[in-house]
Design brief:
Order of helices and strands: EHEHEHEHEHHHHH
Shape: elongated
Structural class: alpha/beta
């Protein structure tokens, strides 16, 4: 039996520049991988629509009027059915690092190839974190070393894609104990969820922060 084609990825776009927003809309409309649900010129407009019509991925300008992408992500991540965010911003400066800290799942430079934006959104929808190289030593804090040996082993296993049940079996502890340890890890790393913890782990690996 032939595999059924996967459903298109529901996506919402937000950019304060109407020309950029129109151009992006046309790109996503032409790509069969995506279903463009809505667009907005402001963070408040995006927020209002996303609360009513959940989407899988949100592409947002980092300097989105009025409150900015960081605040928008912060507000929405407390809600159910939160979209995974791809920040579209300037390549220079700390934008990519700040986007990761805010809870975004990906970053694409506005100066990059258009195909890169489309591919990044597809990867993010599939559960991946997509960022350029980020030196975590430049982050405000690098608490990897505060993790216990067991917590560090759990974080490494988490990064390999193990589920809570797998972690429970491998480490010989209950799933409730796994959840307890994960909660402590998230708190120590100042992250909100599994995806952000994994992203932090890999960033630290790249810079030797977990040695």
């Amino acid at each position: 039996m032939a595999d059924l084609p996967s459903a298109p990825i529901d996506i919402m776009l937000a950019d304060g520049n109407p020309l950029v927003l129109t151009a992006m809309s046309e790109l996503f409309d032409r790509d069969p991988r995506f279903s463009l649900v809505a667009t907005s010129a402001t963070a408040e407009g995006f927020l209002g629509t996303a609360m009513r019509v959940p989407v899988q991925v949100g592409v947002v300008d980092w300097n989105l009027p009025v409150i900015g992408a960081a605040k928008l992500i912060e507000v929405l991540r407390e809600q159910d059915n939160t979209p995974r965010f791809v920040v579209y911003g300037d390549a220079g400066g700390d934008t990519a690092r700040l986007a990761m800290q805010a809870g975004a799942a990906g970053f694409v430079a506005r100066s990059g190839e258009v195909a890169g934006l489309l591919d990044t959104c597809a990867e993010v929808a599939a559960g991946k974190m997509v960022f350029p190289f980020i030196d975590v030593r430049e982050m405000q804090q690098d608490p990897i070393h505060s993790l216990s040996r067991k917590e560090r082993a759990m974080l490494e296993a988490l990064a390999k894609g193990l589920s809570n049940r797998d972690l429970s079996k491998d480490l010989g502890i209950s799933t409730n104990t796994v959840k307890f340890h994960l909660s402590n890890i998230y708190e120590k790393l100042s992250v909100k969820n599994r995806a952000q913890a994994i992203a932090y782990y890999y960033s630290s690996q790249f810079t030797g922060g977990s040695r």
